[in-house]
């Protein structure tokens, strides 16, 4: 009976951890891919790993508003080999840098959604960033 209870508890614990674990995507070099905060992309069997941590800044001009400047989004990332140490990187939509290098790879931020609305703050979980990784 104790053995059955232990197995049930172990399976339940795994299910709970699995439900909260961020999704990892396997992506191809040269292809655009989307990540939400907390998600990780792995390139070429772990030669490079990219985790979209969060949006640090969103000063984009809201939809339907006339602005002098289009604004900027700053994204926080962790970049490096899948099994090695990751470096914190900040990439921007308007300001520089738009890209960063890690080993023989370049990571480029190519877009961010959703569009900013006039009076609505965007929750972190709703952001989706588009990236592209190329070989240098």
* End-to-end Cα distance: 59 Å
Give the topology string: H per helix, E per strand. Answer: HEEEEEEEEE
Number of strands: 9
Low-pLDDT windows of residues: 1-21
CA-based gyration radius? 18 Å
Strand order of the largest sheet: 1-3-4-5-6
The percentage helix is 10-25%
Strand content: 35-45%
| Major sheet summary line | 5 strands, mixed
Mean pLDDT: 86
Count of discrete alpha- or pi-helical segments spanning 4 or more residues: 1
Derived structural class = mainly beta
Shape: elongated
Domains, number: 1
Which features does this protein show?
4-stranded antiparallel beta sheet; 136 residues; 5-stranded mixed beta sheet; 1 helix; elongated; 14% helix; disordered N terminus; mainly beta
Report on the architecture of this protein.
- There is one protein chain.
- Helices cover 14% and strands 43% of the residues.
- By secondary structure, the chain is mainly beta.
- It has one domain.
- The protein has a 5-stranded mixed β-sheet with strand order 1-3-4-5-6, with no helix packed on it. Strands 2-9-8-7 form a 4-stranded antiparallel β-sheet, with no helix packed on it.
- Strand 5 and strand 6 form a beta hairpin.
- The longest helix is centred in the first third of the chain and has 19 residues.
- The radius of gyration is 18 Å and the shape is elongated.
- The N terminus is likely disordered.
Topology:
Layout lengths: L1 H19 L3 E4 L4 E4 L4 E4 L4 E11 L14 E8 L6 E6 L6 E4 L2 E9 L14 E8 L1
Summarize the structure.
A hairpin with a 6-residue loop joins strand 5 and strand 6. The protein has one domain. It has 136 residues and is mainly beta.
């Amino acid at each position: 009976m104790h053995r059955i209870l232990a197995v049930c508890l172990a399976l339940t614990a795994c299910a709970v951890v699995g439900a909260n674990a961020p999704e990892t995507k396997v992506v191809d070099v040269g292809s655009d891919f989307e990540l939400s905060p907390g998600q990780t992309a792995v390139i070429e069997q772990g030669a490079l790993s990219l985790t979209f941590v969060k949006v640090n800044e969103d000063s984009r001009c809201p939809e339907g508003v006339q602005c002098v400047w289009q604004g900027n989004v700053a994204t926080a990332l962790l970049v490096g080999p899948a099994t090695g140490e990751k470096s914190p990187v900040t990439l921007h939509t308007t300001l520089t840098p738009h890209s960063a290098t890690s080993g023989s790879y370049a990571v480029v931020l190519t877009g961010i959604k959703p569009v900013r609305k006039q009076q609505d703050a965007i929750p972190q979980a709703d952001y989706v960033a588009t990236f592209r990784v190329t070989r240098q």
